[in-house]
Amino acid sequence: MPQMKLTGAACALVLLYAAPAAAQTEEVAPEALRKAAMTETATTIPDGWRVTAQVGGSINITDARNVVGAIDGTAIQIGANINIEGKYKSGQHTWDNVLTIREALARTPNANEDIDPAFVKSLDQLDLLSTYIYRFSDPSWLGPFAQLKLNTQIFDTVIRAQQDFTVRRQSGGGAAVEATGEAGDTIDTTGAFEPLLLREVVGLFGQPFAEPVFTLDLKVGVAAQQIIARGGFNLIGTETDGDGNPIFTLQEIEDTFDLGAELSAGAKGYLIKDVVTWNASVTWFLPAVTSGDVFSADNFDADGNPEKLDTLDRQNLEILGGIGIKLTKYISFDYNLLVRRFPQVRDAFQVQNGFQLTLTMDLI
Questions:
Q1: What Rg, from alpha-carbon coordinates, does the chain have?
Q2: How confident is the model at residue 22 (pLDDT cuts 50, 70, 90)?
Q3: 5-37 burial, b if ≥16 CB within 10 A, otherwise e?
Q4: Dihedral, CA atoms, 292, 296, 299, 300, nearest 10 degrees?
Q5: What does the pLDDT look like over 170-227, one tens digit per residue?
Q6: Is 89 in a helix, a strand, or coil?
Q7: Are strands 165-170 and 246-252 parallel, antiparallel or unpaired?
Q8: How confident is the model at residue 32 (pLDDT cuts 50, 70, 90)?
Q9: Residue pair 32/24 in contact by the 8 Å Cβ criterion
Q10: What is the rounded CA–CA span in Å between residue 237 and residue 191?
Q11: How far is Cα 185 from Cα 112, in angstroms, rounded to an integer?
Q12: Over the stretch 42-77, which tens digit does the pLDDT of each residue have?
């Protein structure tokens, strides 16, 4: 019993001594916690390089024989996704680099038995994003940034005709030039690394929230964008003639330059810690100064020639999203969504989405 009284007295003394200190801590805690939250990302990442790689893939093989509504043969779809991130940090300086490659091929049976089935790409995309950020000492969640973006394809794009056809090539706003071909022939549209989109941005970066459960990045800046086409064409429409043969309409991609403003917002976090993660981003580019003509794929004048887009019609939009479910330490099941509108390349929304198994590993 004496021992219990002594212990109780000691606890009382400790509480009395700690009361003023607790009150003082309570007074400054909100500010201290706010600053800690803002600087968590910058301070917890050690200086030096960190390189990670993600490799994803998908395959689907279907064989049909004497099935109603299906052509006899084997259909094969193969997809691959490579994502390499290289991050460098030195004090208040950070340099983030992301290389993404997405490829998909499909081979389906042909109704025309005289034409052998061949693999045709359904997705071919290469993206490079390099961002330098300098964080102010106070507030550390704010600072200037510089960014370079590159978007292109790796391989040639062709159309493989399944029957006799007519192709119309539209150059600029002039009249189309027609040519004909036979079943099995290929129609060239764009070459490797064509078109090439480059965008350089300089502006202000902010990260008002930086918690593992939710991180928000904001950027606003001045941007310059170049489209290097090298004579490539886009397929903008398909119709049939009186004999039921296809007529392909192709529009030439023009070299363009745009100068304007870019706004972007990106967020990421988790729904279940270490199990379910998510990410989303929106980037909007509004040109103010333009050069090079861009023509609509949907609107035509009285003579049937495509109309020229004005400055506001040339604005770009990109929406990215994804959800990942971690199955093991290195393997996850992911869904990715990509929505793009680059009217300088194609005056239409480009939508890509899909599921895949992804292998993730740290290289450095």
A1: 28
A2: very low
A3: eeeeeeeeeeeeeeeeeeeeeeeeeeeeeeeee
A4: 50
A5: 886 666 889 999 988 999 999 999 999 999 999 999 999 999 999 999 999 999 999 9
A6: strand
A7: parallel
A8: very low
A9: no
A10: 20
A11: 13
A12: 446 789 999 999 998 888 898 888 888 778 888 998
Share of the chain above pLDDT 90, in %: 52
As a whole number of angstroms, the distance between CA 160 and CA 223 comes to: 38
Three-state secondary-structure class, residue 188: strand
Q: How far apart are the first and last CA of the chain?
A: 60
Residue 327 contacts residue 333 (beta carbons within 8 Å): yes
The Cα-based distances of 362 to 54, 85, 210, 359 in angstroms read 9, 10, 22, 10
What residues have CB less than 8 Å from 132, skipping those under 6 apart?
A: 93, 94, 95, 145, 146, 147
Give the distance from CA 322 to its chain's centroid: 10
pLDDT at residue 295 is higher than 80: no
Closest listed residue to residue 220, CA positions, set 263, 284, 283: 263
The whole-angstrom separation of Cα 186 and Cα 165 is: 10
pLDDT given for residue 95 in this prediction = 97
Check: CB of residue 168 under 8 Å from CB of residue 250: yes
- What does 64-77 look like in DSSP terms, one character per residue? ESS-TTS-SEEEEE
For residue 117, cis peptide bond before it (omega within 30 degrees of 0): no
Residue 3's pLDDT band, with cuts at 50, 70 and 90, is very low
